[in-house]
Amino acid sequence: MSGPGPQGPAILLEGVCKAFSAQAVLKGIDLGVACGEVMVLIGRSGSGKSTLVRCVAGLTRIDAGRIRVQGVTVQDPAARLSRAATAEAQRRVGMVFQDFNLFPHLRVGRNVSLALQLVRRLSAEAAEARAAEVLARVGLAGFRDRFPWQLSGGQQQRVAIARALAMRPEVMLFDEVTSALDPELVREVLAVMRELAEDGMTMVVVTHEMGFAKGVADRVVFMNEGVIAEEGPPEIVLAEPRQESTRIFLRHLMEA
Length: 256
Known about the structure:
Elements: E1 11-20, E2 23-33, E3 38-42, H1 49-57, E4 64-69, E5 72-75, H2 83-90, E6 93-96, H3 108-118, H4 124-137, H5 153-166, E7 171-175, H6 183-198, E8 202-206, H7 210-216, E9 219-224, E10 227-232, H8 234-237, H9 244-255
Parallel strand pairs: 3-8, 3-9, 6-7, 7-8
Antiparallel strand pairs: 1-2, 1-4, 4-5, 9-10
Helix pairs in contact: 3-4, 3-5, 4-5, 5-6
């Protein structure tokens, strides 16, 4: 496995293909994400957005192509990559899902600190200190001793973000993290994501929140039937799209 390059994209997908049974979901995706860039993926359900970010995170194995994160190959079916090396590379990536995936029987602080001890091998004291730090960062400093069921959906999603941040990722992936929330709770989660963007975190965000895309994204990528149909600055893709498929999608989104 090659070492990280000092320059170049934070994420690079080259000819990435993925199929489930006979259904091709990603059809030769070529895509780069610059360090510090906020990229928003939009498109209809089933267009391949979630599969793409899951492949970057290493949660879904690709069938062909190559994925590199910070210059390190994390997936390449044609190469022999050791499990240890691949796992270490994938620790550079943090991911937050639509479902919070918190352990209901563990308090908030323990939900955040557990992986730090099991994966990063931190001491209990160091893991608890790091958990306190990231919980404060997402506005939940006083919630360490509560259980997930005692929190709102927005608070639970912020705990999930804190858990990902605790691992000190170089890249953050967000997969429809506000779609399960009531409208009044969406704002608090998007506010945390905006702060991360302002701090220079490299982010790939799958979302239907067009306000976030317009205000925060450096680039918007529209996926359609497993390919990238259009990409560019939000003021172009969202306001003056070139492709008819993009225009139809945005019109349906506005009418929903």
